[in-house]
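ok so i was messing around last nite and threw this chain in just to see what happens. nothing serious, just curious
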Amino acid sequence: MTESATNTLRGIGFMLLAVVSWSAMTVLVRALTAEYTSFQILFVRTLVGVAIMTPLFAQRGAGFLRTRRFPLQAGRALFAYFGMLGLFIGIAEIPLADVISLSFTQPIFIVVLAALLLGERFGAARVVATIGGFAGVLIIVRPGFEEVGYGALMVLGGAISYAGSNICIKKLMSTENSAATTAWVNIIMCPLAAVPALMWWVPPPEVDWLLLAGVGASGTAGVFFVARAYDNADMSSVVPFDFLRLPIVASAAWLLFSEATDVWTLAGAAVIFVSTWYLAVSESRKRKIR
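result:
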C-alpha cells in the first residue's frame, strides 16, 4: 500500500472517530436540554475544553499562549461561541435529524463568506454547490408549506457563525500555532458562557455532571479528530463519511427520544450532502493543480 493510500485510510479513520464523537455530543446535549439551558451546557463544554488543554499549559509554559493576532483569536472565539450556542439551541428545539442535516451547510457558508470577506473567486463549481446547498435547506424547512421554526433558524445561524470561525482559522494558521489557537478559543468562550450560565444555573446531580462532562469531552475530541482527518487526507476523501452522522443520530433519536425522521429531511440532507461533497472534490482538484 502506498503512503498516499495509507494516509487516506488514516484520514478516514480519524473522520469516523469525529463522527462518533460529534454524534455522542449531539445526543448528550438533547438529553440535557430538558433540565439545563444551552448556556449552562456550553459553559461546561468550554470548561472541559480548557481542562483538557491544561497539560499543554503545564508542559510548554506561558509561551504556549503567545499570539501576535489576539484580535483575530478573539473574533474566532466569538464566532465559535455563537455557532455552538445556535447548535445547542437548535438541538433543544427541533428533531435531531433536522439539526444534523442543516449543519451540513457549514462548508457552503464558508465558501460564501470567503468570497465576500477574503475576495476569493466564486467560480462555477462554488456557485453550483451553493445553489444546491440552499436548495437542500429549502427542502428541509419548506417555507410556505411549513412554518420556518426558531430552532431551524438558530441552527442555520450557528452554521454561518461556525463558517466565520473557520474563515478566522484560515487566516490564523498562516502565523499561529494550531494547539494555541484551540486553547484560546476555549479560554475566551468560557467566560462568555459563564455569565448567562450562572444567571440561570441549575445545580446538576452527580450523574448529570458526568453527562455534561461528556459533552465537553466528545465535543473537544470531535474537533481534534476532524483536524487530524484533514491533515492526513484530502477533504474529498473524508467528507463523505461525515454524512454517517445523520443515520447515527437519527437512529439514536428514534430509540431514545421517539423522534421520527421524515422523507423531506432525508431528501434535503441528501441534496446538501451531494453539494458539499461536490464542493470538496472541486476544491481538492484546485489545490492539486496549484
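not much to say yet. The chain has twelve helices and no strands.
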